[in-house]
Design a protein that fits this description.
mainly beta; Jelly Rolls; five-stranded antiparallel β-sheet; four-stranded mixed β-sheet; elongated
């Protein structure tokens, strides 16, 4: 620890002292009063175990850990042991606000593969954590995000694994294998892919697309449906039921399946008979379909009936991948 503190004091003194080399004089990295340390006054770089540091400070050890430790003792909660990155656009004399995507602090990790260090072009890290601005900063708003990168087996190019954005939301780009030490279903939480929220309907809804299945994403999808009466008819009405239309993976044929009950009397998933003609009459249902890639999962309503003045209703749908 004494060595690290001495190094930091040394850097500060060198920054103040500057360079006194005469114009035209050839400058070499100078050995300092601590073994293994070299300072280049031209590039303002410091090396330990190297006379040609690749960064502002490069610390090389052989046969032992290149290990830095910060230790702090204090009776106050306002002090801490920390690394801090400070970034501004503009110049030192005229700093400007950071903008979206500006890296505020980054921790990189590179391994040696027998030929060289790091991944793509021996430049990009194999794994890293980046702390970035998530928008243009103002005196009242400092949006920031955290990005975590990894390199997958069989690749030398890093890929984004997780993002924590300035709205507090997290995005996982890979599989979520466990949650609370319990294996997840289908490698993670189902994702919401499509939704419909339509009110004020006064007739059956013709077939329309709920979700377009991508070319490589055929398989199981869960559809949740709800239909509710919002205005009763003057005499009588029948609340329609929701149907889902899709192309089945196994048969390659079109399938039309009810997603909400069609019973004339109250049953499971209903608050009352669909013919109750009462505001708030609701029917719900959840189904699973095996949809073929590059096809549409569509919806429609059927069996709507109403006397004058007409009954109105609303439908709400969600499509999730399983």
């Amino acid at each position: 620890m004494r060595r690290v503190l001495a190094l930091l004091l040394l850097c500060a003194s060198l920054a103040v002292a500057g360079d006194h080399t005469m114009p035209g004089e050839r400058v070499h990295a100078r050995p300092l009063d601590m073994p293994g340390l070299y300072w280049n006054p031209i590039t303002q770089q410091l090396g330990h175990g190297t006379k040609n540091p690749a960064g502002s400070v490069e610390w090389i050890e052989e046969g032992k850990s290149a290990f830095w430790r910060l230790v702090q003792y204090s009776g106050s909660g306002t002090t801490n042991a920390s690394f801090e990155g400070r970034v501004a656009r503009g110049t030192r004399l005229s700093p400007a606000a950071v903008q979206s995507g500006d890296v505020l602090l980054q921790f990189n990790a590179c391994g040696h593969d027998g030929v060289g260090f790091c991944g793509l072009l021996n430049i990009l890290p194999d794994a890293n954590i980046s702390l970035l601005a998530d928008g243009t900063w103002t005196t009242s708003s400092h949006p920031s995000r955290i990005e975590e990168y990894i390199t997958l087996s069989g690749s030398t190019t890093r890929t984004l694994a997780r993002t924590t954005a300035s709205d507090g939301g997290q995005k996982f780009l890979g599989k979520i294998l466990q949650y609370n030490n319990i294996g997840t279903v289908s490698n993670g939480v189902p994702s919401e892919l499509g939704q419909i929220n339509t009110t004020g309907l006064t007739a059956n809804v013709a077939s329309a697309t709920l979700y377009a299945v991508p070319a490589a994403s055929g398989g199981l999808y869960r559809i949740s449906a709800l239909v509710v009466e919002t205005t009763a008819a003057s005499v009588s009405s029948t609340l329609p039921n929701v149907q889902i239309i899709y192309t089945d993976v196994d048969t390659n044929g079109s399938v039309t399946i009810d997603a909400t009950p069609v019973l004339g009397v109250a049953g499971v998933g209903q608050t009352g008979a669909l013919t109750a003609n009462t505001v708030g009459t609701t029917a719900t249902g959840v189904i699973v379909v095996d949809a073929k890639a590059s096809t549409n999962i569509s919806y429609q309503t059927v069996n709507y009936a109403s006397s004058i003045a007409g009954m109105t209703y609303a439908i709400h749908l969600r499509a999730e991948a399983l």
